[in-house]
């Protein structure tokens, strides 16, 4: 983060291009992360419930807690780094906007809520799967919007 | 640079995320040592000391490889915020960060000592793991106070 805040963007084409490239990579990551989770857990209530709790009629076993916890562990790490990079560039470009603060709060809160809700759904109540689904999709959409806004500013300044 | 206070928001959230990552990591370790079959966490820890779960070299490398990158990066990102600190000296930050790196490596490779028969008991892994987690929490505390 220090590298992103120290140089004057107006006089550094290199930093500008580097920031644009990393944001583009994160934008791709966000899309592929959705596809990956659609395969691994499922991105609708039915398939997510089958993954978490199994399906007796179709002889599908529920996911093992080790596998689920490993997914949560990895998700937390990846979310943290994606959001740290995205938010630090976003703050740099849009620090004068009132909305910036709330977008940062929303991004990090939803990104944290998603894996926690997934674990709670597994242990406490199946209805919490909906919270995981909503928070997971929302933070990905919001982060993608932020990435597009950053790219727009960097490319068409 | 305008509105520099905004940067403290992602750092604050980072502290919470790192704590969650540490907790889920500890939980994963205990599960791999038979937490589900044991009566309590204490009995799982006693099992680790008395008879740690056997792991293959392939399994250990599979765990060690991503952790070498992930923990190294996480310590770097967390510790580099201490460059901005006006409440703690750079010398203290340096000492804590270097010990954190050492404990991280000790933690990652501790299980190899058991697998290769250098140590029979699992105490070495527990010492390494608890040392690493406590030191990381201390570093997070330093960053948190500096904000």
Explain this structure.
The complex is a heterodimer of chains A (157) and B (147). Chain A has 157 residues and is mainly α. Chain A is 79% helix and 0% strand. In chain A, α2 packs antiparallel against α4, α4 runs parallel beside α6 and α5 packs antiparallel against α6. Chain A is elongated, with a radius of gyration of 18 Å. The relative contact order of chain A is 0.15. The mean pLDDT of chain A is 90. Chain B has 147 residues and is mainly α. Chain B is 74% helix and 0% strand. Chain B contains five helices and no strands. The longest helix of chain B is centred in the C-terminal third of the chain and has 26 residues. The model of chain B has no long low-confidence stretch (mean pLDDT 89). At the A-B interface, α4 and α5 of A face α1 and α3 of B.
What oligomeric state is this? heterodimer
Q: Detail the poorly predicted runs of chain B.
A: none
The number of distinct β-strands of chain B equals: 0
Most extensive interface between two protein chains, with residue counts: A-B, 29 and 31 residues
- Any idea what the radius of gyration of chain B is? 17 Å
Number of helices of chain B: 5
Q: Which class do the helix and strand fractions of chain B yield?
A: mainly alpha
Q: Mean pLDDT of chain B, rounded to whole units?
A: 89
Q: Which class best fits the helix and strand makeup of chain A?
A: mainly alpha
Poorly predicted regions of chain A: none
Strand content of chain B: under 5%
Give the SSE string of chain B.
HHHHH
Shape of chain B: elongated
Radius of gyration of chain A: 18 Å
Proportion of β residues of chain A?
A: under 5%
